[in-house]
Amino acid sequence: MAPSSLNPLPALALAWLLLAPAGGAAPGCNSDWGLGMGMGMGTGRGRPPAGLGPLSGDQRFIVMMIPHHQGAIAIAELAVVRGGHPELRALAKRIATSQRQENAQMRRWYREWYGSDPPDWSCGGTGMGLGMGMGPGMGMGWDAAQNLKALRTAAEFDRAFLVEMVAHHRMGVWMASQALHTSQRPELRALEQAMVRVQSEEIRLMEQWLREWFKQKPPA
């Protein structure tokens, strides 16, 4: 599998701005919204559903981090089955477990703080749940189903997994670092700090494995 060379930060930054409190709105489970965000903003199909109010910074973080975690869980679950190195399989299992727990916690907080479940971005698997959450392109022209299919059949699965997950973790660290500047909830700030610390450690470990196992420099 040839890893994408896209830099994830511009795509995520665009999505972040589109959901900003000044004018953004929480996406409901709406395929046009998912397609508009995932396949280019010039199509006119990226309008969020009517009737949803502006998001606070903490709401925005939770709404975006849950599908981002869902992408990591999907990749990690595949690595638990397909991974060749036992230490890689063990790491993948830890990632899947910890991010499921974090998603459950964020959903509980969202219900407690905002009186509803977080908006569902999965849209039956065609919207932003995976498209936004997985891979270096972060959904901007990135086909989640195709990338996951390619990873399933990758000849060098461990190499492909490490490249994908390093890029994915870097985005998670960036998202949590940005949110720390404005978060109003101390418990959410603590979670964001933990995400930065743990995922940064995992990035260093995966980059080390890329160098040791495949003589490959980590993706830039």
Overall description:
By secondary structure, the protein is mainly α. It has a single domain (54-214), classed as Ferritin, core subunit, four-helix bundle (Ferritin). The chain contains 8 helices and no strands. The chain has helices at 8-18, 31-38, 57-82, 86-114, 128-131, 144-152, 157-180, 186-214. The longest helix is centred in the middle third of the chain and has 29 residues, at 86-114. The two termini are 17 Å apart. Residues 1-12, 20-52 and 123-142 have low confidence and may be disordered.
Supply the CATH class.
Mainly Alpha
Looking at the overall shape, the CATH architecture is Up-down Bundle
Order of helices and strands: HHHHHHHH
Mean pLDDT: 76
Distance between the termini: 17 Å
Helix count, DSSP H or I runs of 4 or more residues: 8
Strand content: under 5%
- Rg calculated over all Cα atoms: 17 Å
What form results from the Cα inertia axes?
elongated
Determine the CATH superfamily. Answer: Ferritin, core subunit, four-helix bundle
Number of domains: 1
Judged by helices, strands and strand pairing, the structural class is mainly alpha
Q: Characterize the main sheet.
A: none
CATH topology (fold) name: Ferritin
The helical percent reads 55-70%
Low-confidence stretches: 1-12, 20-52, 123-142
